[in-house]
Specification:
Number of domains: 1
Structural class: mainly alpha
Shape: flat
Strand content: under 5%
Number of strands: 2
Largest sheet: 2 strands, antiparallel
Strand order of the largest sheet: 1-2
Number of helices: 4
Radius of gyration: 19 Å
């Protein structure tokens, strides 16, 4: 993009919004079959994992593996994305 003869570099800005721009067309039909709430929860969990420098895919696999062996009444607070981050800070 040229502005008054100079080239404006906005690569970081474009890269920051790229997931939203490319996902827009993919998300059009998410709510059609009642999956909007599920998609919102999964996107929120993945964003939280990323915020705490965790790989979202690895984090979700680990949580699902641990949920499979826990009882329904078990405390799940240690499975939240901030728990591994807090344990790294404590050590």
């Amino acid at each position: 993009m040229k502005i008054g003869g100079a080239v404006a570099v906005n690569g970081a800005g474009e890269q920051a919004i790229r997931p939203l721009a490319t996902g827009r067309s993919n998300w059009l039909h998410v709510g059609g079959d009642g999956g909007l709430k599920t998609a919102a929860v999964l996107l929120s969990v993945c964003a939280s994992a990323t915020r705490y420098s965790l790989s979202p895919w690895s984090y979700l696999r680990d949580v699902l593996d641990q949920l499979a062996v826990r009882s329904a009444a078990a405390d799940l607070s240690d499975l939240l994305p901030d728990a591994p981050a807090q344990s790294r800070i404590a050590t």
